[in-house]
Write a structure and sequence with these properties.
270 residues, Oxidized Rhodanese, domain 1, 2 domains, 5-stranded parallel β-sheet
Length: 270
């Protein structure tokens, strides 16, 4: 299964015994939208709902950080996602939250995970069927496992300010980036990675977006954003162009900006 699948492909695969479809919609508080409520009103038939808002580390001082491996595995088992499943994620969110779910699933050991190109909006635009209510699948075993080689902490990013071994890519919009950002970072607003209809740009177009922003694609990269959500969109886009030496700074600006001792820059990227 490819990492990015079309609505046509998914429609043809629905009902396959090893396929699991997951609604991974999540919204920022200011949107005043309820992801669980919207899922129950309309979702792709057979899809279960991954509650990203509560799939976090509640013991962390930084909001919206990744959950412990045991908590993640338990939640996946309860959703019917297990070892050997082919998992297709989608969302109906302006912040493209399915990319967060994609990153988590891969980090916690799932091997065959894809994102639906265009998400629920494209599915509905094509007049494909929607289901209502909640879906319940048989629990499946999800092995507790974690590979955090593609995670970076604040200490890692501080150290990198001196070594400059990795380049930070900030997924926030230009106004927020120019107000303040991690020194030396480059700005690739996540919205620039999509076509007007919400589908992902082609790999050659994505590459041009990064190059235009001054991102040296020969270097290992660290993706950051406001709260660790849209940074995953950048990571998935880089995956689509074949670049996987990319890490997530999960604390992102929520952590960096709140620390009076961390250095900050303002203005456009140098």
């Amino acid at each position: 299964m490819e990492s990015l699948v079309s609505t046509e492909w998914l429609a043809n695969e629905l009902g396959a015994s090893d396929l699991r479809v997951v609604d991974a919609s999540a919204f920022l508080p200011e949107s005043k939208r309820d992801a669980a409520q919207e899922y129950e009103a309309c979702h792709i038939p057979g899809a279960v709902f991954m509650d990203l808002a509560n799939l976090i580390d509640t013991a962390s001082k930084v909001s919206n950080t990744l959950p412990p491996a045991e908590k993640f595995a338990s939640r996946m088992q309860s959703l019917g996602l297990g070892d050997g499943s082919r998992i297709v994620l989608y969302d109906d969110s302006p912040i493209k939250s399915s990319a967060r779910a994609w990153f988590m699933l891969r980090m916690f050991g799932a091997h065959d995970v894809a994102i639906l190109d265009g998400g629920l909006a494209k599915w509905k635009q094509e007049c494909r069927p929607c289901a209502q209510g909640k879906e319940s699948l048989r629990h499946r075993h999800f092995t507790v496992w974690q590979d955090d080689k593609n995670l970076r902490t604040k200490a890692d990013v501080l150290k990198n300010l001196h070594s400059k071994e990795e380049l930070v890519v900030d997924a926030r919009g230009a106004p927020r980036f120019e107000e303040a950002h991690i020194p030396g970072s480059r700005n690739v607003p996540y919205a620039a990675l999509f076509n007007a209809d919400g589908t992902w740009k082609k790999p050659d177009e994505l590459k041009k977006v990064f190059e235009k922003a001054g991102v040296d694609l020969s270097k290992p990269l660290v993706s950051s954003c406001g709260s660790g959500m849209t940074a995953n969109v950048v990571i998935f886009a880089l995956h689509l162009i074949g670049k996987d030496d990319v890490s997530l700074y999960d604390g992102s600006w929520s952590e960096w900006g709140a620390d009076a001792d961390t250095p900050k820059e303002s203005g456009a990227a140098a």
